Amino acid sequence: MNPLQIGSIRVDPPVVLAPMAGVTNAPFRRLCRRYGGGLYVSEMITARALIEGNAKTARMVTFAPDEVPRSLQLYGTDPSVLGEAVRRLTEEGQVDHLDLNFGCPAPKVTRRGGGAALPVKRALLRRVVRACVQAAAPAAVPVTMKFRMGVDDRALTFLDAGRIGEDEGVSAVALHARTAEQLYSGEAAWAAIGALKQAVRSIPVLGNGDIWEAADALAMVDATGCDGVVVGRGCLGRPWLFADLEAALAGKEPAPPPRLGEVAAVMADHARMLADWLGEAAALRDFRKHTGWYLTGYPAGPEIRRRLAQVSSLAELEDLLATLNPDATLLPGGLRIRRGHTNGPRPVHLPERWLDDPDDVAALSPEADALVSGG
Predict the structure, then answer these.
(1) Fewer Cβ atoms within 10 Å of its own Cβ: the N or the C terminal residue of the chain?
(2) Among 104, 132, 226, 235, which one carries the catalytic annotation?
């Protein structure tokens, strides 16, 4: 498959790591990059938090010295705030690529008009995208955008969003082929990715949703004609998925899933990298959620899973991992066991009369910029 061109950035293979809060931090991105090429995007950062400044946000926008390109996702609703955040990031040379999040389905955001609710307001979306593209232009930093199909099946916004992005100069668009109402439930509607590809002709269109193994990426590209794929939950506990994707997209056969001993070695390495970044105590608290993802599909008993989910030190982690059967293999169907969020569907909370006038550009409350995850 052809490489993906995002501004001056060549992405080969055309694979993008989806931003996931609490997951796609610098250590996880570094781990994934060991397995293959692609574009590895940071956790989502709110523009307002970046401008106001705090220690947590400063750490989240930190990249490893060897991390190239440096890719960061921004979230916000105010064109002036987003524009200022983009100017700071690009003028100071902190990033090589910026992605805009218009897909977050969290109720505390959509009820204030942010996230997946914002594309309903076409004129406001245009102002937001224009402010970011113009602010990034002097530094020649490409801007992309990621969004969902819409609020629900009655309020689909993805075609308008894609055309607005194309009109305003973004370098690529990515569609998570679910509505905000679906959250992470059901099946991704890949046909919508194909429709977006037909509507947006001059820039790359990327598809996101239900890529659990390399064959899914091939199937998505074949079904939709998309120019690249965005991978989220499928790589949780499986950073080697990027090696599988690189092989498959090059027409090669992916390697068989690793044995449990290999998985344990990656787990230990991941935890050590987190400890170097966060300190041991905080790192192990953060790593606990990863342990279940790594063991998904492998024959490990409930007791070891429970103890790993409560691990508090690197030494304890290594002792527990040593009790696993290193020769155990992935159970049949293990690649397709869903990881991460599975919640939904759920009615979407919106501001009063939000759907009445899509060309309304009234300013949103600063509370719409609350830091959340999703997309």
Answers:
(1) N
(2) 104
Walk along the chain (375 residues) in steps of 10 and give the mean pLDDT of each run.
96 97 94 96 92 83 91 95 96 96 91 93 97 98 98 97 98 98 97 98 98 98 98 98 98 97 98 97 98 97 97 98 98 94 94 92 71 50
| Cα–Cα distance measured from residue 116 to residue 40, given in angstroms and rounded to the nearest whole number | 22
Q: Which residues pair with 228 in a beta bridge?
A: 206
Nearest partner of 130 among 170, 188, 186, judged by Cα: 170
Count, residues in the chain: 375
User: Residue 103 in 3-state DSSP?
Assistant: coil
Core vs surface per residue 220-259: b (16+ CB within 10 A) or e: bbeebebbbbbbbbbbbbbbbbbbbbbbbbeeeebeebbe
- For residues 259 and 151, give the distance between their C-alpha atoms in angstroms, rounded to a whole number: 41
DSSP secondary structure of 127-154? HHHHHHHHHHGGGT--EEEEEESBSSTT
CA distance 125 to 120: 8
Structure token pair of residue 355: 């759907």
Contact status, residue 14 vs residue 249, Cβ threshold 8 Å? yes
**Residues 65-95 as b or e (16 or more Cβ within 10 Å = b):** eebebbbbbbbbbbbebbbbbbbbbbeeebb
Provide the 10 A C-beta neighbour count for residue 209. Answer: 28
Residue 104 falls in the annotated catalytic set: yes
Task: Supply the pLDDT for residue 373.
Answer: 46
Tell if the pTM clears 0.85, that is, is over it.
yes
> Structure tokens of 277?
């970044």
Cα–Cα distance for residue pair 293/281, rounded to 1 Å: 20
